[in-house]
Specification:
Layout (H helix, E strand, L loop, with lengths): L3 H24 L11 E9 L4 E2 L7 E5 L4 E6 L2 E10 L2 E9 L10 H9 L1 E7 L2 E6 L4 E7 L2
Antiparallel strand pairs: 1-2, 1-3, 1-9, 3-4, 4-5, 5-6, 7-8, 8-9
Length: 146
């Protein structure tokens, strides 16, 4: 019994710390934006092969994380929705439905949706939201709508 008490206590402390990190990420701490509740405008994606995708109109590509695990987004001329899963700084996004309007030539809709499906984690950098892609293949940068 004596041996199990320190291990149990340590486990409880570690689990509490994980919950605090999760809550802090969702609500935002002083100086750090909150992941949920804001509408994020896509500024572009950058890839480890030195290529980039940058929309001409960032407001046509938006992302909003609701507190209930749902995500709403705009992908140029289409609207979409789905769900996300947050575990610490690990983040996965699953787009479940989208409208099927034909966007004009030059639209980055497909690249945007593909990148969102490859998100693995997130962080904040100078007020921007950075969604990191799987396999260290790049990231997506978002700025909060004003």
């Amino acid at each position: 019994m004596v041996k199990f008490l320190p291990v149990s206590l340590l486990l409880m402390v570690l689990l509490s710390a994980c919950q605090v990190m999760h809550s802090a990420a969702e609500r935002g701490d002083a100086g750090t934006p909150a992941l949920t509740g804001a509408t994020w405008h896509w500024q572009g994606s950058f890839y480890n092969n030195d290529t980039r995708q940058e929309p001409d109109t960032p407001g046509n590509y938006t992302l909003r994380f609701d507190g209930d695990g749902k995500v709403r987004l705009r992908a140029d001329c289409n609207r979409a929705g789905g769900r996300y899963r947050l575990d610490g700084h690990r983040l996965t996004i699953e787009v479940l439905q989208t409208t099927l309007a034909a966007c004009p030539p030059g639209s980055l809709e497909s690249a945007y949706l593909k990148d969102l499906g490859n998100v693995n984690s997130y962080l904040f950098h100078q007020g921007d939201l950075i969604l990191e892609l799987k396999y260290d293949s790049g990231g997506m940068r978002f700025s909060a709508a004003e």
